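COURSE: Structural Biology Practicum
ASSIGNMENT: Worksheet 4, Part C
STUDENT ID: 0417
INSTRUCTIONS: Below are two proteins. For each, the amino acid sequence is given first, followed by its structure token string. Answer the questions at the end about the second protein only.

PROTEIN I
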Amino acid sequence: MESKFAHIIVFFLLATSFETLMARKESDGPEVIKLLKELESESWCKGKLFWPELIGVPTKLAKEIIEKENSLINDVQIILSGSPVPLDYRCNRVRLVDNILGSVVQIPVVG
């Protein structure tokens, strides 16, 4: 029983690490940054609206950086990758999607 539990834990840790690598590889592309900048110019929200440089950063540190760089953000939520979230849009909210290791795995965006 204990070895099955250990195998499950190891598999889960490896799976979340793989997701971090995949998210970093896909989101660093220049076309994603260009799209986000286009969205930023069309947005009615003020200040910095996305942080691609925070992928792979510990979520607690990322939260501090976001709050420092945009003082209008007062609701930074840390959620586990794959968790359901409401689809409403708010200019004062950023969701940090992290893995079990506590690292950001998706580009944090105002919304």
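PROTEIN II
(use this one for the questions)
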Amino acid sequence: MTKFRHEVFTDTHLNRMEEIMRDVCADFETELREFNGGNNHVHLLVNFPPKIAPSKLVNSLKGVSSRRMRQEFPELARHYYRANKLWSGSYFAGSVGGAPISVLHQYIEQQNRPG
């Protein structure tokens, strides 16, 4: 979720954010299986080994994406000027080891992107 729940992301932003987050996942030796989002949030399905701490991965995903998005899209600054942060401090992570991957893919794909 974006800081202050500002509705800031367009398809262009989300496409670039997906590239950035795929790079971060690769650096962690994890796999970003699905990515989607809306104008103020993103959904990720990440496959990662037990040696990776979810909190460290999330902090890196949020930190790197915030820094790069602010550099590449300076117009985003008007939405986070009060805190100089793109993301809120919270996130949700769930384990889905028993769920069929097709169900997870379908859920992420159905999350609407803005026009």
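ANSWER KEY EXCERPT:
Q1: DSSP finds four helices and two strands in the chain.
Q2: The CA atoms of residues 13 and 73 lie 8 Å apart.
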